[in-house]
Design a protein that fits this description.
It is a single chain. The protein has one domain. Helices cover about 75% and strands about 0% of the residues. The protein is built from 21 helices and 2 strands. Strands 1-2 form a two-stranded antiparallel sheet.
């Protein structure tokens, strides 16, 4: 570069303005990025006998990332839009960021003893876990196709490796390979749909895509119909919706149990967050395309998930198909997201369901981990007579299974109530048909949840061994967090209702739309 050109550039330096960055708004992401590097570096410095310190450090990183969330929640500045509206921090994103951080903290508690006793690598495990959480936290604020896809891949790629963490276990290797191959295929489908959206609308911002589809005089064209269908299909894989669910049971069974808990809650919730964003912001006028697709997927997902779960004798596979079925209940309101006045109730139903499901499912897997330490079995029959020698675990598992069933006052009842109300608010024939299918599936699900409860409370101990179970302190802490959350949200659901405001989700975007 010549001196004259350089001097002219420097002279014009006063006109160079970098976009202002609200550092407070993105403080949780910054803490996670710094924490990932600290955990990675610390693993090089900590000797093998003190690898447990890596888990503690990871927990402190997650707690540190949660502190800015509290300060953002109590501030009166409202929604904050960064990078021309492509990244937004509002109440909707804050409550879901909190869910992901808390779920990851519980998974760290569940992982500590399992990794130490199994002799698995710990430093890399926690680094990958934090990277995946960073992607989930970014997903809640992403309002652009590019940032949504980057967040999705950031949360998915570490999860592929975590699923195969037990490298000496054939089932774990199979779990990782299946998850990876099908995940890559789903990412390709999703990216193709996104490219069609960009090509036909000229923008990657979700709000601009929504405006372009709404302004189309003749309605959305054929390419846009394909784009919407491909995007929905791509996210359907992430939430293990039928027919894109085939990876879930084998992956959940083969992965380490803490990773299974993480995938069944956090990864699934991140997929639903992405679906919420594109449906409410990018596809508000495309309900004629995605509505029937999601209706069919929701009906098939809850039905097939429940029917197959009825036949399972392994508790992890039963919870895997239960997770598939629960995904169908969460999908159910989304089929009617833009039907009449149902939008607000749909938003509340999905967000509240994700929060309650997160506490409940993590708690159920925590009990599975604790019981397996003694029985060395994943069979449902091994829970026979649990109330006699591990009453605390028996009561906890009963609470979590009752919540998954939807029995008051456990949190699951308000989750299902909101889901049914959102569907009925649509006030259409297809909505009432969906409600009827969901009601039948609720009864089917109760059958296999109650079967486990019967084993716990009424069946004899299968091997006659009534030695009390010693639950490690981290697992006990995880059980306490999940139990309190399940009961508290069942009694006081209003604690999180205000964070699921549809106007809040779209308000910051509308304010910056040209």
């Amino acid at each position: 570069m010549s001196a004259s050109v350089l001097s002219s550039l420097l002279a014009a330096g006063g006109d160079w303005k970098s976009p202002p960055v609200d550092w407070h708004a993105i403080a949780p992401e910054i803490v996670l990025i710094v924490g990932i590097n600290i955990v990675l570096a610390s693993d090089l410095l900590v000797d093998e006998a003190r690898k447990w310190a890596t888990a503690s450090l990871t927990g402190f990183v997650l707690l540190g990332a949660a502190i800015p969330l509290v300060t953002l929640a109590v501030s009166d500045e409202g929604a904050r839009a960064l990078f021309d509206g492509r990244y937004v921090i509002d109440d909707f994103s804050l409550i879901l960021k909190a869910l992901f951080l808390l779920a990851a903290y519980v998974v760290v508690l569940l992982s500590q003893n399992e990794l130490e006793e199994g002799g698995y690598y710990q430093g890399e495990y926690y680094v990958l876990l934090l990277c995946s959480v960073l992607g989930m936290v970014m997903m809640t604020s992403s309002r652009d196709l590019v940032s949504v896809f980057i967040a999705l891949e950031l949360l998915s790629i570490p999860a592929y490796m975590l699923a195969a963490w037990r490298k000496r276990d054939v089932k774990s290797n199979e779990a990782g390979v299946k998850y990876y191959l099908l995940g890559v295929f789903a990412s390709g489908v999703l990216l193709y749909g996104m490219s069609l959206l960009y090509g036909t609308t000229g923008s990657t911002r979700l709000v601009d895509i929504g405006q372009s589809l709404a302004d189309a005089s003749g309605g959305i064209n054929g390419l846009q119909v394909i784009a919407v269908a491909f995007v929905v299909a791509g996210f359907a894989f992430k939430v293990s919706a039928v027919p894109f669910h085939t990876w879930a049971p084998d992956t959940y069974e083969g992965a380490p149990t803490p990773v299974t808990a993480f995938l069944s809650v956090s990864s699934k919730a991140a997929g639903f967050v992405a679906l919420l964003l594109v449906i409410f912001i990018a596809f508000p006028t495309a309900d004629g395309v995605y509505g029937p697709l999601i209706w069919v997927m929701a009906a098939l997902t809850m039905t097939i998930g429940n029917l197959v779960a009825l036949r399972q004798t392994n508790i992890v596979r039963m919870l895997a198909y239960s997770s598939v079925s629960q995904g169908g209940f969460i999908l159910m309101p989304l089929a009617f997201a833009n039907s009449g006045d149902a939008g607000e109730s749909v938003m509340k139903a999905v967000v509240v369901y994700l929060l309650i499901y997160g506490f409940t499912n993590l708690g159920a897997f925590a009990v599975v981990i604790a019981v397996a330490r003694k029985t060395r079995s994943g069979e449902i029959s091994s829970y026979g007579g649990l109330i006699g020698y591990a009453p605390g675990l028996a009561v906890a598992m009963t609470i979590f299974l009752a919540s998954l069933t939807g029995i008051p006052p456990m949190g699951g009842w308000i989750a299902k109530f909101n889901a049914f109300r959102a569907v009925i608010d649509a006030d259409t024939g297809s909505a009432y048909a969906m409600a009827a299918i969901a009601a039948v599936n609720t009864a089917i699900a109760a059958a296999y949840y109650l079967r486990v409860m019967r084993q716990i409370w009424m069946a004899p101990v299968p091997d006659g061994d009534t030695t009390p179970i010693r639950t490690p302190a981290p697992v006990g802490a995880a059980l306490a967090i999940c139990g309190i959350g399940t009961l508290l949200l069942g009694v006081l659901p209003g604690l999180v209702m205000r964070f699921a405001d549809l106007d809040d989700l779209t308000g910051a975007l509308a304010a910056i739309t040209p």
